[in-house]
């Protein structure tokens, strides 16, 4: 099996994201990593969808989990005819892609690609274990291609990074941040990383900081109300985030808190680069649904209640950063101005 995860952190190794094997999907529980290394074991595609909804895996993890979930769905119907299997896989594709609303369009591309592979396999006479194998191969091939694309994005981001730099991240940019750091090491860049914690799941503190530390980079965690001050005092050179959606008119939908850091970056004259290909399924902001999660989660920190009973919470999972606050969208084809994303498809 060809791999593109060489030199990346433990968290980014293929089997430690989400992995199908022998009738189960194993997903590293990112809600508690690195305090514990625990895997959620899913025995059906609906359990995979629930794990995605429950934030067992985050950032790019749900897309990997969805592809592996399609292989598991094929296992669930290994004893059925080809047409029955395809009908089941069609329903599974919808269930997995709609586990979370904001990213459903992108997830549909993942599960739709797997479904197309299933149609091809069935038409070639593959059923049972042969169909399962075909679906697993599709999931792994997609994983390989993703890491290859992310490596290109990491290199483009490195192109706009000074050789001696302090960068600030937001949330967890998955393999893009790992590929970026790997590329910085290859170029002998001296890079320090500052990670806002990203409440309520603390992805910055637990995931991004863990990747940077695991790859032997100087990394510092700050609380979510410190970025503006820290940018000036620590002389931050660049702010970067991934994006859950980049609309064709240049709006960046990412983990809530991205907007305020982008505002601070603009105030201090620090460039902000978001990493993601633009999505034609989202022509403008009106096509995006901002997911709101359980408000109780903001009233606690890692399971410990921090407020009196009766205090209200509010938890939008994402916010919107307008194009004027972003210096460039880093894609697999290069860096584009947020107002010129249609050129990506030329």
Measured distance between first and last alpha carbons: 33 Å
Number of helices: 9
Q: Which residues form runs of ≥5 with pLDDT under 50?
A: none
Estimated helix fraction? 25-40%
Approximate shape? globular
> Major beta sheet, specifics?
7 strands, mixed
- Over the alpha carbons, how many angstroms does the gyration radius reach? 20 Å
Query: How much of the sequence is in beta strands?
Result: 15-25%
Helix-strand topology string: EEEHHHHHEHEHEHEEEHEEEEEE
Report the structural category. Answer: alpha/beta
Total DSSP E strands: 15
Please tell me about this protein's structure.
With 346 residues, the protein is of the alpha/beta class. 39% of the residues lie in helices and 18% in strands. The protein has helices at residues 45-53, 61-76, 82-97, 104-123, 128-159, 174-186, 203-214, 227-233, 258-268, and strands at 18-21, 24-28, 39-42, 164-170, 190-196, 218-222, 238-242, 245-246, 252-255, 272-275, 300-301, 304-305, 318-321, 328-331, 334-336. The strands form four sheets. It has a seven-stranded mixed sheet with strand order 6-5-4-7-10-14-15, with helices on both faces. A three-stranded antiparallel sheet has the order 1-2-3, with helices on one face. The chain has a three-stranded antiparallel sheet with strand order 8-9-13, covered by helices on one side.
What brief labels describe this structure?
single chain; 346 residues; alpha/beta; 7-stranded mixed β-sheet; 3-stranded antiparallel β-sheet; 9 helices; 39% helix; globular
Short description:
This protein has helices at residues 45-53, 61-76, 82-97, 104-123, 128-159, 174-186, 203-214, 227-233, 258-268, and strands at 18-21, 24-28, 39-42, 164-170, 190-196, 218-222, 238-242, 245-246, 252-255, 272-275, 300-301, 304-305, 318-321, 328-331, 334-336. With 346 residues, it is of the alpha/beta class. Helix 4 (104-123) crosses helix 5, helix 5 (128-159) packs across helix 6 and helix 8 packs parallel to helix 9 (258-268).
């Amino acid at each position: 099996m060809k791999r593109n995860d060489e030199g990346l952190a433990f968290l980014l190794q293929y089997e430690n994201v989400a992995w199908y094997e022998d009738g189960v999907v194993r997903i590293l529980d990112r809600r508690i990593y690195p305090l514990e290394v625990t895997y959620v074991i899913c025995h059906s595609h609906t359990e995979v969808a629930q794990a995605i909804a429950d934030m067992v895996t985050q950032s790019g993890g749900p897309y990997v989990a969805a592809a592996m979930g399609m292989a598991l769905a094929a296992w669930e119907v290994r004893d059925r005819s080809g047409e029955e299997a395809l009908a089941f896989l069609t329903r599974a594709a919808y269930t997995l892609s709609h586990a979370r609303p904001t990213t459903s369009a992108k997830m549909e591309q993942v599960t739709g690609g797997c479904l197309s592979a299933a149609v091809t396999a069935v038409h070639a006479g593959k059923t049972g274990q042969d169909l399962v194998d075909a679906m697993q191969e599709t999931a792994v091939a997609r994983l390989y291609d993703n890491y290859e694309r992310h490596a290109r994005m990491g290199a483009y981001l490195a192109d706009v990074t000074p050789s001696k730099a302090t960068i600030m991240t937001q949330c967890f940019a998955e393999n893009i941040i790992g590929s970026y750091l790997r590329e910085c090491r290859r170029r002998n860049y001296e890079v320090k990383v500052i990670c806002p914690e990203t409440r309520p799941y603390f992805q910055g503190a637990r995931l991004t900081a863990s990747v940077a530390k695991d790859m032997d980079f100087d990394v510092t965690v700050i609380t979510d109300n410190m970025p503006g001050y820290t940018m000036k005092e620590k002389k931050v050179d660049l702010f970067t985030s991934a994006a859950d959606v980049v609309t064709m008119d240049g709006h960046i939908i990412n983990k809530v808190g991205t907007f305020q850091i982008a505002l601070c970056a603009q105030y201090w004259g620090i460039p902000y680069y978001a990493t993601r290909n633009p999505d034609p399924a989202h022509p403008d902001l009106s096509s995006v649904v901002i997911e709101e999660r359980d408000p109780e989660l903001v009233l606690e920190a890692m399971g410990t209640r921090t407020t009196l009973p009766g205090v209200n919470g509010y938890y939008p999972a994402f916010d919107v950063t307008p194009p004027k606050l972003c210096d460039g969208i880093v894609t697999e084809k290069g860096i584009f101005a947020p107002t010129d994303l249609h050129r990506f498809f030329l």
